[in-house]
Amino acid sequence: MLRAPSEQDIPAWFARATDIESASLAGDPVPDDIGAGERWLARSRQRFADGEAIQWCIDQAGVSDAIGTVTLSFSEADAKSAALGFVLARAYWGRGLGSEAVREVLRFAFETLELAQVTAEAAARNLASLRMLTKFGFRHVESFVDPSDDEPCQRFVLDAGIGLRLLPGGEAP
Predict the structure, then answer these.
(1) pLDDT band for position 166 (50/70/90)?
(2) pLDDT tens-digit series, residues 67-111
(3) Cα 150 from chain centroid (whole Å)
(4) 131 within 8 A of 164, measured Cβ to Cβ
(5) Beta bridge partners of residue 68, listed in sequence order
(6) Strand 2-3 to strand 81-88: parallel, antiparallel, or no bridges (unpaired)?
(7) Which tens digit of pLDDT belongs to each residue from 1-33?
(8) Which residue has the higher pLDDT, 149 or 141?
(9) How far apart are CA 113 and CA 124, in angstroms?
């Protein structure tokens, strides 16, 4: 299930954000204190209010805390495009839960928002994310080095025509 982030998500966000390997794979800085979670939530809400992004928490039945987040960030330069980002708590890696959340966000992006394309980036060493993007039909468009941490990364794009085929009843390319 996907839902808006709330104050109750701050401890789970902080636990994910302070997992060194997870933060490193996501290209995120490790926060120093739980106050960073309050700033994360405020920023998420402000970006939504400003029309810059939509962020969802990922819930799993029977689990009290959110297990991750998925985000669509919008560009001022191209109103028909958004960047996809996703983070999942390590305990839930490899179970297909991230794929399930991403599939629903892509459905929303292409069917409801009627976007023409969705982009995504992943660290070159984040093999699980690279496989997921490929599975959904994203095509590689660029290799680059993230200047903030010198991490080799990959950039991908998924066009609406391909993305719509990934919805239930469609077939992955």
Answers:
(1) low
(2) 999 999 998 888 899 999 999 999 999 999 999 999 999 999 999
(3) 21
(4) no
(5) 58, 88
(6) unpaired
(7) 999 999 999 999 999 999 988 888 887 888 999
(8) 141
(9) 29
Residues 103, 146: Cα–Cα separation, whole Å: 26
CA quadruple 65, 102, 35, 15: dihedral sign: positive
β-bridge pairing 81-88 and 117-123 = parallel
Q: What is the pTM of this model?
A: 0.89
Q: String of b and e for 106-129 (b: at least 16 CB within 10 Å)? A: beebbeeeebbbbbbbbbeebeeb
* C-alpha–C-alpha distance, residues 173 and 140, integer Å: 14
How many angstroms separate the Cα of 28 from the Cα of each of 35, 49, 87, 134?
16, 23, 10, 22
What are the start-end ranges of the E strands in the chain? 2-3, 53-58, 68-74, 81-88, 117-123, 139-146, 151-159
**Cβ neighbours for 130, distance < 8 A, ≥ 6 positions apart:** 122, 124, 154
42: its two tokens: 């405020």
Cα–Cα separations (whole angstroms), residue 100 to 28, 141, 152: 23, 24, 27
Determine how many CB atoms are found less than 10 A away from the CB of residue 43.
13
